[in-house]
Automatic annotation (TrEMBL):
The keyword Zinc applies. It comes from the Eukaryota. It comes from Crotophaga sulcirostris. It holds the Pfam family zf-HC5HC2H. Residues 1-50 form the PHD-type domain. GO terms for cellular component: nucleus. SMART domains: PHD, RING. Coiled coil: none annotated. SUPFAM superfamilies: RING/U-box. This is G2E3 ligase. The gene is G2e3_2.
Amino acid sequence: QDCFVCGHSGATITCWESSCNRSFHLPCAVEGECVTQFLPHYRSFCWEHRPQQAGEATADEGTTCLICMETVQHKTSYSTMVCPACQHAWFHRTCIQGQALYAGIFNFCCPLCRNKNMFQIEMEILGIQIPIR
């Protein structure tokens, strides 16, 4: 199968949506804005069918990522996320992924409100890998 991101053959990951026939390589997933869920049921989604954050949270002008302190987009997207519990903590996908890898499942929580359960569930659904350590 050809990868819909890079166009090369050998794509082995297929979108979980049954009506979708897009396939991609795991390394191409980030570039193609695909989401891979590292839950008990390993699933992957193309950019069109990936899970989105619920709600209409919008960031104020000049809102920064709590981890890298760089500005974020004014709304949620593939690369910009918000804490589902407090709706005030904004961060980049790459920044929160780094935080998750560092903290592990026992210490990973919202950098602002410290919510753990709701935050971890939402991040796992959105494709953030949280290692068990």
